[in-house]
Write a structure and sequence with these properties.
Low-confidence stretches: 1-12, 95-99, 358-371
Shape: rod-shaped
Radius of gyration: 45 Å
Bound molecules: guanosine-5'-diphosphate, magnesium ion
Strand content: 5-15%
Helix content: 55-70%
Strand order of the largest sheet: 3-2-4-1-5-6-7
């Protein structure tokens, strides 16, 4: 949060109470976020969120009555001395016995039992746990009941394991008291590597300038001012800053009071986790951004996809076969009966593609389930056109999404690419191409053709009979005349001419109707192919876009304090 309003709000957060239910709701939102992006975003980006969800769940389940406060700082700043002074016990070895401070010691105010699970989880060994309750002056300590104070190893230790231990514990404790001394308070390590990292945990951060007795009293305010200025640059504006002297009980009063307040409020654990959620949400913000998720791939990209799918599925080959099949079948039904039979002998163009042939000539239904038309396989050009179209769909759909998402959208769009050829083939095989019904006009024209042919045959028969009678010297038939021409001749020639004329007139009509049949088949096939595209390409893309929207909403809920 970089704007001024944000800074002001953050600065005053120290006084705000964190509602446990609200915190749990925010953690749930982080969990929802993780579910939404599972498998879509790189796991490495999600580690902090997973860690938070797990840690927070455990911390809240373990004990909300205890407050875990860590004393952290550089070697020799006086952590162990403060620890001992607060516990009023010589527990944790002070400087003279360094470097034994590589282990964390814990002091529990109040009964140890309740705190044990918490300390097990934090990882403080039982032999390094102490109880303040057993001391004789226990009554004075009731104000600190519930406090678990940790003396951490030095974070500037030369031993890497100590530093790792400090980092681990700083991730788990509820509140941190940073201990600095007059010599090293301005040290870059403490500010750059630690304090600055804690700027989202201001409300569980406290800084003490220890060994204040080593400064001339007039110098103390000046050093505190200087330290305050450094803390401001660290982003820790407003955190409590105290001067302490571990060697003098009077020099510990301010720190004790601060700890008593922390224990009484029982807010530190919640505030710490709230700060953790802030940190995680801020880290995820870039992954999700605030882009409004697009409604889905746009129409232009979808049209391009459908065209490419149709090409790859062999729709043009099928529709061409439909046109030819129409002509073939119409010819067989309406052609001149003399040559019709010969036409039937030629194979039906659709059957050649293993698509439904003429009615009654259907392929075995079981066969069509396993698909396998003989529509030619897509060419390399068609395949790459399909690849490009799928890519375009993904690109357009992901255009407004943050950088982490387009990859996921593209993989989703391509996720079922391998199943596409079969699905397309099955779809083509299962599409009703609209050629099953024989149009009435075919039958009418066919009937007319039969009639005129019959007339020609009758005329021929009549003429043959006339010739035969004449040849045998029998009395000739008295042929009725049509004008100057005898009726049998009219029947024969008229029938033949009419047959040829009807065939000639029908031909353009058949061609026109065949083109219409082709257009109809094209429409049906394209629609079915588009359904396949929707199922195999667009739906996976929409699912990812839906996940994005869910992730975005979840993160917005998680950010709400
Ligand atoms: N004068 C003075 N010396 C202190 C104070 N606190 C710690 N020391 C001394 O500083 C040295 C380092 O202290 P220690 O508690 O071991 O520091 P740690 O490394 O942070 O645990 C020891 O010799 C302490 O006696 C203080 O407030 N005033
Ligand atoms: Mg120490």
């Amino acid at each position: 949060m970089s704007n001024i309003a944000g800074r002001v709000r953050e600065a005053f957060r120290g006084d705000q109470r964190v509602d446990a239910d609200a915190l749990i709701a925010r953690l749930d939102a982080v969990r929802r976020f993780l579910t939404a992006v599972d498998g879509l975003l790189p796991d490495s980006d999600l580690v902090p969120a997973h860690t938070l969800v797990e840690r927070a769940g455990t911390r809240l389940a373990l004990s909300r009555d205890h407050t875990v406060v860590a004393l952290a700082g550089a070697t020799g700043s006086g952590k162990s001395s403060l620890f001992n002074a607060l516990a009023q016990l010589e527990l944790s070895p002070v400087g003279v016995r360094r470097p034994t401070t590589g282990v964390t010691h814990a002091c529990v105010w109040g009964p140890l039992e309740g705190a044990n699970h918490l300390l097990d989880w934090i990882g403080v060994l039982p032999r390094h746990r102490f109880v303040r309750e057993s001391a004789l002056d226990a009554d004075d300590e009731t104000a600190l009941h519930g406090l678990i104070l940790l003396d951490l190893p030095d974070f500037d230790s030369v031993q890497r394991s100590h530093r790792l231990e400090v980092d681990r514990l700083l991730g788990l404790v509820d509140q941190v008291v940073w201990v600095v001394d007059p010599q090293k308070y301005a040290d870059r390590v403490i500010h750059d590597s630690y304090l600055r990292e804690f700027h989202r945990h201001r409300d569980v951060t406290l800084v003490v300038l220890n060994q204040a007795d080593r400064l001339p009293p007039v110098e103390v305010p000046r050093v505190l001012d200087d330290l305050r200025r450094l803390l401001d640059t660290d982003g820790l504006t407003g955190v409590p800053l105290l001067a302490t002297t571990a060697l003098d009980p009077a020099g510990m009063v301010g720190l004790r009071d601060a700890l008593e307040r922390t224990v009484a409020e029982r807010q530190a654990a919640l505030r710490r986790l709230a700060g953790d959620v802030d940190t995680v949400v801020a880290g995820l913000d870039e992954l999700v951004g605030s882009a409004r998720p697009a409604g889905g791939p746009d129409d232009a990209a979808i049209n391009g996809l459908n065209r490419a799918l149709a090409g790859a599925a062999g729709v043009p080959a099928v529709t061409e076969a439909v046109e030819r099949a129409y002509r073939h079948r119409a010819g067989a039904a309406t052609g001149w009966p003399v040559v019709r039979g010969w036409r039937r002998l030629r194979p039906d163009p659709l059957r050649r593609l293993h698509l439904p042939g003429p009615a009654g000539d259907q392929a075995d239904p079981a066969e069509s389930l396993v698909a396998a038309t003989s529509v030619p396989d897509p060419t390399a050009a068609q395949r790459s056109a399909l690849g490009l179209a799928i890519r375009a769909v993904a690109d357009r759909a992901a255009a407004d999404l943050p950088a982490a998402w387009p990859g996921a959208v593209t993989s989703a769009a391509r996720s079922r690419l391998g199943d596409l050829p079969d699905a397309l083939d099955r779809t083509i095989a299962g599409t009703d191409l609209g050629l099953d019904r024989r149009p009435v006009w075919w039958r009418l024209v066919g009937g007319v053709q039969w009639l005129v042919t019959l007339a020609a045959v009758v005329g021929l028969g009549w003429l043959v009979l006339g010739y035969a009678l004449r040849a045998l010297g029998l009395p000739a038939l008295d042929n009725p005349m049509v004008g100057q021409v005898p009726l049998p001749t009219v029947l024969l020639l008229g029938g033949l001419l009419a047959g040829l004329l009807v065939a000639a007139l029908t031909r353009p009509v058949v061609r026109w109707a065949a083109r219409r049949a082709r257009a109809r088949a094209d429409q049906r096939l394209t629609a079915r192919v588009a359904q396949v595209g929707d199922e195999y390409v667009l739906t996976p893309v929409r699912i990812v876009l839906g996940s994005y929207a869910q992730a975005r909403d979840a993160l917005r809920d998680a950010a709400r304090r």
